[in-house]
Amino acid sequence: MASEVQMDESERKIVNEFCHHLEKSKQLFNGLRDLPQYGHKQWQSYFGRTFDVYTKLWKFQQQHRQVLDTKYGLKRWQIGEIASKIGQLYYHYYLRTSETNYLNEAFSFYSAIRMRAYYSKASKEERPDLMVKKLRYYARFIVVCLLLKKMKLVRDLVRELSKQIDDYTGTYEPDDQMEWNLVLGEIKSFIEADNIINVVDVDSSAIVLSHRLTPINTPPLDKGSPVYLTLQEILIVGNCHEQVKFSELTLDMFRMLQTLEREPQDDLTTQIFDTSPAPGRQPLCGLGQQSSIENGERNARDNPHKYLLYKPTFGQLNTFLASAFKELPPNGAMVLYISADGCHGNQKHTDDAAYDLGGVITNSRRDGEEATKSKRPSHLKEIHCLHPGDLYPYTRKPLFLIVDSSNSSAFQNFPNLFGQPLVCLLSPEQVPGNMQEQQLKGSLFTLFLHCPLMALCFVCKIVDVPITLWDKCQAQVDKFMSEASRLFTRSRKLDHSYMQFFGDDFLRLLLLRFVFCYIVLILHRGFKGPSFYPVSHPSLPTDEILEHPALYRLVLEIATLLEVRGLFAEPGDTDIVA
Q1: Of 130, 77, 83, which Cα lies nearest the Cα of 107?
Q2: pLDDT tens across 92-150, in order?
Q3: Nearest CA to 227 among 506, 568, 24?
Q4: Which of 182, 236, 252, 386 is most exposed, with minimal Cβ within 10 Å?
């Protein structure tokens, strides 16, 4: 009898300890939303404590599963919820650190939930809130899979989500039925819009291509070339009216964030889900301890730190800019990428390039008002328009600005007030009429910066490309990048700012892809006039780089391979309007 009492006490202790870990984990998780979204130090230790508690909770429920099943009544959906929270932690840690390996960790937990069917009986509980948790899990899993380019799985998950939404709405007739159908529609539109070129295998099956930086696609740099600056901080801003988006990521933002990341290590994804979603490894081992970031040092990392800002107000954008500026270490560079609608200024007064030429609008709302299209008095400037002058203070440190907008020319005369390296890459302000509708599915300029060959195929209206042909064309693109890189390093007329940035792999990639974009568009017969071409500031030398015969020849060779040579003019033709 004593042993039975002792067993009861032991079981009670296990249940109480589990409840303590569970409650503590919920408190810490809910506190994450109160942490500042910017900066590097303020949130680090809190995340570490949260991971520690969830690690203990996960291990504890594994070790005492039988007691918790029989005495506490632990259900599989509750285990799934713990795993889902850990997956969310990893995803948010990726967002805060930009390290793609944490995406793989999030994927491993989300995948385990599906493989073990933790939520399979949620619908039988007759609780609509459980079904909502299941739907949210699916939406989060889809985002992670999209970022990891696991497109076959994405399509499977979308089908499953659609069925789950039907079950949920059919059973409960909930108030949020329209919202979930909207989410599903956004996902489907996003996938369709991102799939503008089909690279197909010999059996006509689609091949998924990754567009992150790898050792293979990193453009070469002449041996002995100095590396002055490295990219450390990135702000990716999106506010294009009606452009396809999902989960506060426009398609342009989605493409650019991949362009500015290295490919995650494959070995982290090859896991066997036997005892836990991440067997043999503790989640973010050691994060609970004081890290070098907390000590004021910046860890060497694969990817620059970045902020993703969807429709930020001017105040929000300025706050994040100031934070990135503050965190920028010596010899660090900041990229500000903006994909947004143009906000045209008062063209009658052009004496002040800082504000009179307008800029780009980052948010459509005015303070205290809902989004509106009504015209305001002409003497009032748009409150959430980012003008060139708004960025002048941030040129005290190296700034690499990319503006993809119908009013990008507002940034064309950007003064270098502090003598620091400053480069602006500005999109064309127009596209041919037959491509304007396609802009809703992502900007052409951003597509060139994301995947030059895909953009070239797009402007030539090529939809399907056999993988063998794609590889041949990609080899020519690689030759272009190598040759253009050589021309940069040997140019005598190049502004010194370019060479300050050129040593960084990501910035070199963007500069070379900009040149590719310029040459493709200036040779393409469908693009006629300066407003159809991208612009750089300071100007790149035309004879040494932008109009170099070797680069022209390589682009035309790609056009020949794709059998669209007739769409391109000969260098020197009157069709070319520079």
Answers
A1: 83
A2: 999 988 988 899 999 999 999 999 999 887 766 678 889 999 999 999 999 999 999 99
A3: 506
A4: 182
DSSP 306-322: EEEEES--HHHHHHHHH
Question: Which residue, 287, 284, 207, is CA-closest to 46?
Answer: 287
How much of the chain is in helix, strand and coil states, percent to nearest 5? 50, 10, 35
Q: How far apart are alpha carbons 336 and 48 in whole angstroms?
A: 29
Q: Comparing C-alpha atoms, which of 218, 159, 217 is closest to residue 188?
A: 159
Q: Is the dihedral of CA 473, 479, 482, 485 positive or negative?
A: negative
Which amino acid type is present at position 497? S
Distance CA 198, CA 204 (A): 10
Q: What is the pLDDT of residues 232-247, one digit of tens each?
A: 999 999 999 889 999 8
Distant-in-sequence, close-in-space partners of 414: CB < 8 Å, separation ≥ 6: 353, 388, 391, 401, 422, 424, 537
Residues whose CB falls within 8 Å of the CB of residue 357, separated by 6 or more in sequence, listed in order: 345, 347, 350, 387, 388, 407, 409, 410
**Tokens standing for 374?**
């009504």
**For 65-85, b where at least 16 C-beta lie within 10 A, e where not — what string?**
eebbeeebebbbbbbbbbbbb
SS3 call for 35: coil
Contact indicator for 387, 359 with CB cutoff of 8 Å: yes
Query: Could you write out the DSSP letters of every residue in 500-524?
Result: HHHTSHHHHHHHHHHHHHHHHHHHB
The Cα 550–Cα 487 span in angstroms is 10
- In whole angstroms, what is the distance from residue 219 CA to residue 163 CA? 45
**Quick one: tokens of 289?**
């301890």
Cβ neighbours of 214 (radius 10 Å)? 10
Q: What are phi and psi of 76, to 5 degrees?
A: -65, -35
Please name which of 550, 48, 56 lies closest in space to residue 291, comparing C-alpha atoms.
Answer: 48
> Between β-strands 332-344 and 535-537, what pairing exists: parallel, antiparallel or unpaired?
unpaired
